[in-house]
What does this fold into?
Amino acid sequence: MRKNSIKNIRINEEVRRQLQEIVMRQLKDPRVDPMTSVTKVEVAPDLKTCRAYISVLGNDEALSSTVEGLTKAEGYIRRELARTVNLRNTPSIRFIADDSIAYGVGMSKIIDEVIAQDERRHVGTAEDKPENMMED
It folds into this structure.
């Protein structure tokens, strides 16, 4: 199976969906933040290894403790994944911290600030113009 084949893409998405379900609903580790999401999963073509990218809405400390908790619970997560996904081999999972959600939130704040500055600048120039300019 090639890395970017349709079958591999389907397997990646199904494993991602099931990992998200296991992490959010079944895992009771206090180190795992409740705002954890599995952003991307890459299963090797031989189905022996898997990289799961984990993102946490919070600070870097919450992200590192979540990755640590998930790494410690890898055996349980793998067993649950084998129970829910019917694959020839159940891949061993390596959890990798992904800060894409935090990056997106930061960029959204910057964009909001720029828009607010731009609106304040336009409001100041609109007050300087005469009101009856449209009547000419």
